[in-house]
Specification:
single chain, 99 residues, mainly alpha, 2 domains, two-stranded antiparallel ribbon, 3 helices, 2 strands
């Protein structure tokens, strides 16, 4: 099937990432790659780009998520350390009264 046929080829966009499959297929054809093979390579590369590459937006979302997780862990550690301190003071006060 040709580029203008039933085969869908064009621009693949994933948030802020764009890959022009048509331009890529045409470049392959100019380099001597058969049309059908160029189309398959363009589609395959577009799938890889879309599925596996992280965009800046993806990284910012991950960074925000990690920052939230870190704040939550910090709060839980503070509470645990405070609890341990209260228990230690209680044990110390009890020992002072007994001795």
């Amino acid at each position: 099937m040709g580029i203008g046929g039933a085969f869908s080829i064009g621009i693949i966009m994933s948030t802020s990432l764009a890959f022009d499959t048509l331009a890529y297929a045409k470049r392959l054809e100019k380099a001597g790659v058969p049309e059908a093979q160029a189309e398959v390579q363009a589609e395959t590369l577009a799938e890889i780009v879309e599925e596996r590459l992280a965009t800046k937006r993806d990284l910012k979302e991950m960074e925000a998520s990690l920052a939230r997780d870190l704040r939550e862990i910090e709060m839980r550690l503070t509470i645990k350390l405070g609890t341990m301190l209260v228990i230690a003071i209680g044990v110390f006060a009890t020992l002072v009264k007994l001795l």
